[in-house]
Amino acid sequence: MTVRAVERPADLRGWFGDHVEELRAFVPVDGESLDDRVARGAAMLGFLHGAGVMGRGWPEAWGGAGGTAIDRALVYDLLVRSGLDLPESLAPLEVLGSALSAYAPELAATHVPRVLRGQELWCQGFSEPDAGSDLASLRTRAHRSAEGWVLTGQKVWTSLGHLADYCGVLARTGTTDERHRGLTLFWVDMRADGVGARPLQTLTGEDEFAEVFLDEVVVDDSCVIGEVGQGWAVAMHLLQYERGMWAWQRQAMLHQALEIAMAHDEMDEVPVDAIGHAFCVLSSVRARSARTIERLSRGEIVGPEVSIDKILLGRAEQAVNDVVRLALGRDFATSDAAAAERARGAWFYSRAASIYGGAVEVQLDLVAQRVIGLPRGTR
Amino acid sequence: MEDMEQDLRDSLRALMGSRSFLDAETLFDSGWDEVLEESPRLAVRTLFEEAGRGAVATAGLDVLISLALAPEREVLRVLAVQSRSLEGVDEDGVVMVERAVVTTDPDVVVIVDRRGADVVGAAEVEPGTGWTVEQVAGADTDSRLRLLSGRGRIRRRLSAPETEAMDRMVLLALSHERCGAARGLLDVAVGHVRERHQFGVPIGSLQAVQHRLAGVEVAVEAALSSLDAAWDTDDEVATLVAVAASARALSEAVRDCLQVCGGMGFTDEFPLARLMRRAVVLEGSGPSTRDAETAIGRRLVESGVVRIGEIDRPTEGQA
């Protein structure tokens, strides 16, 4: 496919300094709904892509500017330093985009440019009602028919599933006994016949995630990501980015949250060691994540040690949001002001940070058994 | 680079061998000071992590500050940290030292007035009246602890930038040593829980045991990453973050590694014992997690700014 040539600013930092006024249009606004936030993020990406900023770190064939994960990390830092948040579509882009790049280049060539331009949102169909931490026990089935692959099952905790255009669905193509060996990852159009999504309101007060129903949804062979039966390997490849690059995006946002809290009137009431603790944990995750991104950029496979990044991120999310909560004093529980609502939403969301993407208990199992070499055993 | 680092670690391990103390002369003879000149980061990281891992006390901090403060090497300057020692003392004044820990009987002491994690000042001090050095067993006989007391006379006050640069190196070195000690404790504990069977299984297969030790691994890795980041900048908050994280790694290792080694870990002949006693000395040798986090918090509150960084080393040629 032909990708429109975009003139790219050579001095990225300088570009952000020169475009403060235009970027102000995309700064988060109080009381914004989730739908509005997603729309604002899409518009922001459209603007950034048109200016040649978005796409650094993605291959040129996919509408990018070449480069590696480090270049993407720099863009995220600069966006957050400019007072912006990171568009919702960037998290699934990091996670699924990396899998498409490695295992389904044709899908990547079609869909990655659309996300970079703010025209598409994806979601990740992994978890199921009976397969959360124990992902290998998932039951969504895919079987071959004359028309193609037929998918049937139910996904849950699918972030933004009801707003997404496409979904990476992990389904069972083998037998249940094969556990993780019988899985395949499929690319599913959320508008296809048989796909339904019902938003679920979360503790944050928003419809953050959804139940996704697949009722004999037909997809063709071009929608298989990797080989049939190789879904677990693709999922493990993807988890490097889910645990590595996601941590980088979040640490940037957490620095911003802490900075906003510092300006709060009641910050003097917060014990200084609590502030120091939050900053310390946050700095650790940034330092750790920077090393992981460097390794990903060199093309290294990041092994089970990436669970350490994930564990540290959960702690940083919670420590920073605890400080934000303290800074708000009793307003945190009693105020209806937009700032308090936002802080409450963020605090509740931070409690999920030790659950989503593999609960902290699972991460500790992985560190114990696959990093420091303790024997597998009964739990 | 990685091979070179491993070679260096191997030769340091050989040098430490069965020693429990590595004095300045041995360090100079080994050529460690030359590595230090070439790459302070590599020299400090390898020496102090290996010393921590092997529970070997060293005169490394003394060599570090001596070379930082005076290029001539005839006189070894010995570090002594004493809170409030320089308070109200004028330029040529007399300093009172009371039971400050030193590694050797010194001709020149560098007194650092540190309160919590903050350094108020530092000065080179010569012996005065009632100057005594007493050897004590303390928590760890093998650490060869000496306590310096008496009056000293200020030879020279260190300038603020000089003090800051010296203290940064001291704190980074101590943090590497604490990480090494935590890793040493973890290695012993991992070895033990893999071998020790109870209820018909290795206790290391039990999740309660696994999570404690995985937690120590996470803490050590977080501290090592923070140290890496601290070497990349001279921002003092980055140093304090590394201090806090390393102190936390060591205290978690002390708590959890001893626990999973059970009754065996409590006997003196078990390899954990030596590391535990040394760890207690190291925990008391500098700022605690809380000291460092308090200092960080105070700086953030004073400046009101949390700086959002920029990742380094983006790929070249992105025009």
Automatic annotation (TrEMBL), chain A:
<feature type="domain" description="Acyl-CoA oxidase/dehydrogenase middle">
    <location>
        <begin position="123"/>
        <end position="216"/>
    </location>
</feature>
<keyword id="KW-0285">Flavoprotein</keyword>
<dbReference type="InterPro" id="IPR036250">
    <property type="entry name" value="AcylCo_DH-like_C"/>
</dbReference>
<feature type="domain" description="Acyl-CoA dehydrogenase/oxidase C-terminal">
    <location>
        <begin position="229"/>
        <end position="371"/>
    </location>
</feature>
<dbReference type="InterPro" id="IPR009100">
    <property type="entry name" value="AcylCoA_DH/oxidase_NM_dom_sf"/>
</dbReference>
<dbReference type="Pfam" id="PF00441">
    <property type="entry name" value="Acyl-CoA_dh_1"/>
</dbReference>
<dbReference type="InterPro" id="IPR052161">
    <property type="entry name" value="Mycobact_Acyl-CoA_DH"/>
</dbReference>
<dbReference type="Pfam" id="PF02770">
    <property type="entry name" value="Acyl-CoA_dh_M"/>
</dbReference>
<dbReference type="InterPro" id="IPR009075">
    <property type="entry name" value="AcylCo_DH/oxidase_C"/>
</dbReference>
<dbReference type="InterPro" id="IPR046373">
    <property type="entry name" value="Acyl-CoA_Oxase/DH_mid-dom_sf"/>
</dbReference>
<dbReference type="GO" id="GO:0050660">
    <property type="term" value="F:flavin adenine dinucleotide binding"/>
</dbReference>
<keyword id="KW-0560">Oxidoreductase</keyword>
<protein>
    <submittedName>
        <fullName>Acyl-CoA dehydrogenase</fullName>
    </submittedName>
</protein>
<dbReference type="GO" id="GO:0016627">
    <property type="term" value="F:oxidoreductase activity, acting on the CH-CH group of donors"/>
</dbReference>
<dbReference type="InterPro" id="IPR006091">
    <property type="entry name" value="Acyl-CoA_Oxase/DH_mid-dom"/>
</dbReference>
<comment type="similarity">
    <text>Belongs to the acyl-CoA dehydrogenase family.</text>
</comment>
<dbReference type="GO" id="GO:0005886">
    <property type="term" value="C:plasma membrane"/>
</dbReference>
<dbReference type="InterPro" id="IPR037069">
    <property type="entry name" value="AcylCoA_DH/ox_N_sf"/>
</dbReference>
<keyword id="KW-0274">FAD</keyword>
